[in-house]
Amino acid sequence: MIRGGIPLCGTLTAAGSKNAALPILAATLLTDAACQLHRVPSLRDVSTMLMLLSSLGARIQRGEQGPVTVVSESVTQHRAPYDLVKTMRASVLVLGPLLARYGQAEVSFPGGCAIGSRPVDLHIRALEAMGAHIEIQGGYLVAAAPNGLHGTEFEFDTVTVGGTENALMAASLAQGSTVLKNVAREPEVTDLVCFLMTMGAEIEGVGSDTLTIHGKSSLRGGTYAIMPDRIEVGTYLVAAAATRGSVRIEGVSSSVLGVIIDKLREAGADIREGDDWIELDMKGGRPRAVDIVTAPYPGFPTDMQAQFTAMNAVAEGTATVRETIFENRLMQAHEMKRMGADIVIEGDTAQTTGLLALQGAPVMASDLRASASLVIAGLVAAGESRIDRIYHIDRGYEDIEGKLQSLGADIRRENRSSMVQ
Ligand code: EPZ
Predict the structure, then answer these.
(1) Given ligand 1 and candidates 52, 325, 366, 394, which is best to mutate, with the most ligand atoms within 8 Å of its CB?
(2) Residue whose CA is at the smallest distance from ligand 1 atom 31
(3) Quick one: which of 184, 132, 185, 127 has its CA closest to 158?
(4) Long-range contacts of range 82-89, CB-CB < 8 Å, 24 or more positions apart?
(5) How far does residue 74's CA lie from ligand 1's centre (Å)?
C-alpha cells in the first residue's frame, strides 16, 4: 500500500546483484571444493537457487548476514525438478555446470513467463557444439556428455545472457579450448567470469564480444564478493528522480550503471559520483521525459525500461520507450494507464506524455521489473495505491518497503506471509 507525493530523501546501501549471484551460485557445482560468497542478496530467487543446489546434494551454509558457503562435493542428483524450475527460469543455469562436472543433467524445460517465450535454444546449441546430446523428454531437457565436453567454436545468433553463462561454465571444464562469439557483455556475465577465474578457469577476452576459454580438468573453490545490483540501484535512483528527491547510494560504482546515469542526467538530475557511491539530487525540480531504446549491454538495459516509463509518466514533455529484447514487456504501461497515465502503446513502443501526478489506484504486478515500476508510479500518485501480486517484487528486491520507508516513503506491506523466509 503506497500513499504518493513524498520526495525520496536519504541514503541506501546497494545489495548484491541477483543476476550475478544466480549464475555464480550455479558455478559452485563445477568444483567439489568449498566456495564462500559474500554479498549474496536475500531474495526469493536466491533462496530458490540455494534450494535447487541443496536438492542436488550440495551442502549450503548461510549465516544471517554473513557469507554463503557452498560445497558440491556430495552432489549425487543431476535433476532440476519442475516445481523449482517453474518458479525461476534461471534454474536452467545448472545445466552447463552439471553437464561439465558429471556428464549428465536433467532440467525441467523452463517455460515462458509474462514477458515472453524465453526460449533456451541457444543454450542447447552451444552445449551440443561442445559434444552434449540434449533431448526433450516429458517436459525435461535430458542432457548427456558420456565422453565429456570438448572445446569448440560457437557463435550466438542472438546475444543471450543465460546462454553465454551456461556455455561459459561448461567450457571451463571442457577438454581443449572454446571460442564463444557474440557473447553477452552484461556486467553480471563479467562477474561470473571473474568468479570462474578465481576458481582457476582460464578465460580470455573479458568484456569483449568474444570469449576464449581454455578448459581445465578441475577447478578449485574460492572466496568471492558478488558485484552490487545495478538494476536495484537504478530503480531507486529513478524513484528519487520521479519523486523530485535526493538520494545517496553507497557500495556501488557508477561505472556499472553506464547509460542509466546518462539518461538520468538527460532527465535533469544532478548526479555526483565517488569510487563506491552515487548521489542524485533533483533540487526539487520535475524530471524531463527521456527516450529509451533497450539493447544488450552496453546499451540501455531492458530491466530498467519499466522504471523509466513510470518516471516519464510524471515528467515534463513526451517521450517514447521501445523494448527490443522481449516480446511482451510493456504490460506495466497498461496498469499505469489505470492510474491516469497518458501512455499510448503501439507494438514495442510506449509513448508517454507526462502529467503532474498520477491518481492512486489498485494495480497488479506482472513481472519483477514491472512491479518495481508500479511502486514508483504509486510513489508519484496522489492518494493511495494498492499493488497486488508483490511476490514478483520479492524475487529481485531486498526489503523494498523497508528501503523506501528509510527514504521517507509512505509504504507498507499487508499480509506479510509473502516475505522471503
Ligand atoms: C537475463 O535473462 C536476466 N536474468 C534478465 O533479467 C534480463 O532481462 C535478460 O538477461 C536480458 O538482459 C538473469 O540474469 C537471471 P537472455 P535471460 O537470454 O538470460 C532470446 C530480471 O528482471 N533468447 O539474454 O533469460 C530471448 O528470447 C530478469 O532480473 C533466445 O532466443 O535473457 C530474449 O529475446 C528478467 N534463445 C533475448 O534472447 C535463447 O536460447 C535475451 O534473452 C536464449 C535467449
Answers:
(1) 325
(2) 119
(3) 184
(4) 82/108, 82/139, 82/140, 84/48, 84/51, 84/52, 84/55, 84/108, 85/109, 85/110, 86/111, 87/48, 88/45, 88/48, 88/49, 88/395, 89/113, 89/118, 89/162
(5) 31
- Gap between the Cα atoms of 157 and 386, Å rounded: 42
pLDDT at position 286? 98
- Helix (H), strand (E) at residue 319: strand 318-322
Residue pair 78/56 in contact (Cβ under 8 Å)? The answer is: yes
Q: Determine if ligand 1 sits within 6 Å of the CB of residue 337.
A: no
Which residue from 85, 158, 369 has its CB within 8 A of the most atoms of ligand 1, so it is best to mutate? 158
Q: Are 194 and 224 in contact (CB under 8 A)?
A: yes
Please report the pLDDT score of residue 417 as a whole number: 53
Q: Which residues pair with 209 in a beta bridge?
A: none
pLDDT in tens, 111-138: 767 777 778 999 999 999 999 999 999 9
| CB distance 368 to ligand 1 below 6 Å | yes
What phi and psi, each to the nearest 5 degrees, are found at residue 106?
-130, 120
Strand intervals (E) in 6-161: 9-13, 34-38, 59-62, 68-71, 79-80, 104-108, 133-137, 140-144, 153-155
Relative to beta strand 104-108, strand 133-137 is unpaired
Question: CB 187: neighbour CB atoms within 10 A?
Answer: 21
Residue 414 CA neighbour count, 13 Å, CB half:
7
Please answer whether residues 330 and 396 qualify as being in contact, where contact means their C-beta atoms are separated by less than 8 angstroms. Answer: no
Residues of the chain with pLDDT under 70: 112, 416-421
What is the spatial distance between Cα 57 and Cα 245, in angstroms, rounded to a whole number? 47
State how far the Cα of 219 lies from the Cα of 37, in Å rounded to an integer: 16
- C-alpha distance from residue 191 to each of 40, 107, 226, 302 (Å): 13, 24, 7, 19
Sign of CA dihedral 25, 31, 36, 38: negative
Q: Where is 55: in which H helix or E strand?
A: helix 44-56
**CA of 337: how far to CAs of 6, 14, 247, 292, 327, in Å?**
21, 31, 28, 19, 20
Separation CA 207–CA 231 (nearest Å): 19
